[in-house]
Amino acid sequence: MTNQSRLFRRVGVSLAALGALLSAGSTLAATPYTADDLKVRQDALTNSVKRGYDMWYGARADMANNGLACANCHPDAAATNPQTFPKFLPMFNKVVTYRAMVNWCIQNPQGGKLMDVNSDDMTALEAYSFYLHKGTKIETGLVTRQTAGAEPASARGFNVKGTGIGFDK
Amino acid sequence: MSLIEVPNRRRFLGMTGAAGLSTLSATAVGINLGLVDVVSAQGGPRSVTPFRFAIISDPHLYSEKDHVFDKHLEDAVAQTNALATQPDFVLITGDVSHHGEADQIAKGKRILSKLKAPIKSIPGEHDWYLDMGAAWKGAFGAETWSFDHKGIHFIGMNSILVPDFWTAAKLTPAQRRDWFMPLNSPVPGVWGVADIGLEWLAKDIAKVAPDTPVVIFTHSPLWDYYPRWNFQVKESPQIRDMLGKFNNVMAFHGHVHHTVYNKIGNLTSVGTMSTSWPWPYPPIDLPYPAFQQNRADPSNTADGMGSATVAIDRTGAGFVQHMPFADSLSPTMKNGFKV
Q: What is the pTM of this model?
């Protein structure tokens, strides 16, 4: 088969699929996203990430009884590795979700009150942590080495790149 | 005096380094000869009397009664007091308190007073910005200092100074302090010793001979480790230039809450564990990855924290041993290393 015939064949298949969709009725034809649609969605996500950031740094009092916040141990969500869940954790002795681990931290080192795993606030904590790991390969399983969160492009906080001064290579 | 600190037999038997091996031989035949001083049996350019000092970093005490971090600091005190060869002094590398409150600083001083050895302190940013160091200075004295001890020149510097960002913004003392609380806070900017520190250092070392071994303490490292988390001192290049005249400069710091090592020319930099909580390593490639701790286990509340001890030998070189509360060190660090 020539390249040209392959192309016609593909176009033919695509046209056939499109015809099938159109004949199924206009309700199945997706409306293209408008700029306004995208803004609404992005704003909602950004607000959730910001809410997560604020809670990460101690905005919700019932998350601790000893003054500790997520950020004490996890600046920039470092070493949270949400992309590695679900995974086995020894304190549970079973495979758990990221939200279960967040609740474990709230209850144990922070001495706080268990959070509803389906609440918007829990989603926000997850959104913030995942946001900082955007681009990180999803790789469920155990993490045995020290790992850090990706440096955020536009999270609150200042973004100072190292100059490299000081490395004696 | 031995350079190697062996808190208990179990840990002792786990040692695999050359110094540990020679000691092991002596003990294996049932003769308690004490630990063999292997590394320091060398001549040096200058007369140094061997001794030990210890380091306790970043207690971050809160005001709550019986807070978990009180216990961690007490553990570090007990660990230091249990050293077979007692340190001549213990260096506290800053952040005794978390919020800079007077009661937190007083609590820190009370717990640290249980140390058998005297202490020397430098401030961290958490100690400073509520009252600009008033309570801290009241408890621990001068923020920048130097002294000569058994042939070594010791320097401690306030390295958490920033230009005034609070007056024009009309911030309250608590607001000013709170801007320093997050590690990646956008407002205060990069910390340092400021011009006043550079001027002080120039005068301090002017008459110190180049073959004098120097030990310098700052809260954060004297190299550009990870500025986003303020893992640097702003004037590090100038400080390293000024200290360039010495044969051997041993720099120790806290702030990073994990073990880290770097070498720049004549300056060896060692970061020690905190007693409060461990921080992960930042997302950069370290020049000496063998000095990274293992990943701390969150289910073990003692893991990833501890103190350190440094034995100075006759050549003026230091022998560093990190002393974790739980076993989180890499093989490179378990037996100690020379600086």
A: 0.81
